[in-house]
């Protein structure tokens, strides 16, 4: 009797592959109601194992409301941000920002709290505007169009140099990836034994067909799943 392949084991959610909940207890995002001109003070900068950038905890000046946001580069404890002001760290509607403004933690839809451009050191750039439509150049250099009422934070995300420092040893890399529930190290399927994966065994990497059948069982549904086409495009 064969073993469950890694995809099956991860999908089951056993303790081996389950991420610790405390890594994702903090969920950065804007509140649904944040009025223009409100002041919020940075009360703490938090290291979260589940995120690649520090998290800023902000409390409303003169109130008790609290929310967490991805920290902008240069943000410090005690700093005050203002809603709809256009300075680094402030939260504003992208429709009100000038072309070329650097932003991050962009809402995909108005009031969804922020979904895009959230990893350490990244930022997007406001492009052209047409009516209620705003073009934004994402960290991938591709442009995406948003509703002008979507909110974003001005500036770049902190933690820009995180990829410049090497891990030096496999143990550090292992625990860093485990904190985010990432599979590492990844073993090539054709390097496995036949008992562990449908592509396993055989001398050399002679995989054969990589297209799984539409109604294949979870243990056999590997490789290309219902691809529109295969192979390299001819120029």
Number of strands: 12
Discrete helix count: 2
The averaged pLDDT comes out at: 89
Shape field: globular
Strand content: 15-25%
Architecture overview:
This protein has 235 residues and is mainly β. The protein folds into two domains: 1-17 and 183-235, Ribosomal protein L2, domain 3, CATH 4.10.950; 21-162, SH3 type barrels (Roll). It is built from two helices and twelve strands. The protein has helices at residues 6-12, 170-179, and strands at residues 39-46, 55-60, 66-70, 80-82, 91-93, 102-104, 124-130, 133-137, 143-147, 151-154, 211-212, 224-225. The protein has a six-stranded antiparallel sheet with strand order 5-10-6-7-8-9, with no helix packed on it. A hairpin with a 5-residue loop joins β8 (133-137) and β9 (143-147). The longest helix is centred in the C-terminal third of the chain and has 10 residues, at 170-179. It starts with 5 loop residues before the first helix and ends in a 10-residue tail after the last strand. The relative contact order is 0.15. The model has no long low-confidence stretch (mean pLDDT 89).
């Amino acid at each position: 009797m064969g073993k469950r392949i890694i995809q099956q084991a991860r999908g089951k959610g056993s303790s081996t592959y389950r991420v610790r909940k405390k890594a994702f207890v903090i969920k950065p995002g804007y509140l649904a109601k944040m009025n223009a001109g409100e002041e919020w003070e940075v009360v703490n900068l938090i290291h979260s194992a589940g995120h690649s950038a520090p998290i800023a905890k902000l409390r409303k000046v003169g109130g008790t409301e609290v929310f967490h946001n991805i920290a902008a580069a240069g943000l410090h404890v005690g700093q005050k941000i203002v809603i709809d002001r256009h300075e680094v760290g402030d939260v504003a509607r992208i429709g009100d920002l000038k072309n070329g403004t650097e932003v991050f933690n962009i809402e995909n839809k108005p009031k969804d709290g922020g979904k895009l451009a959230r990893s350490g050191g990244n930022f997007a750039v406001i492009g052209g505007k047409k009516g209620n439509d705003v073009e934004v150049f994402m960290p991938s250099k591709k442009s995406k169009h948003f509703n002008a009422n979507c909110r974003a934070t001005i500036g770049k995300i902190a933690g820009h140099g995180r990829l410049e420092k090497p891990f030096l040893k496999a143990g550090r890399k292992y625990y860093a990836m485990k904190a985010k529930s990432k599979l590492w190290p990844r073993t090539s399927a054709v390097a496995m034994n036949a008992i562990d994966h449908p592509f396993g065994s055989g001398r050399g990497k002679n995989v054969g067909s990589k297209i799984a059948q539409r109604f294949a069982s979870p243990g056999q549904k590997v490789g290309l799943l219902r691809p529109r086409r295969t192979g390299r495009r001819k120029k």
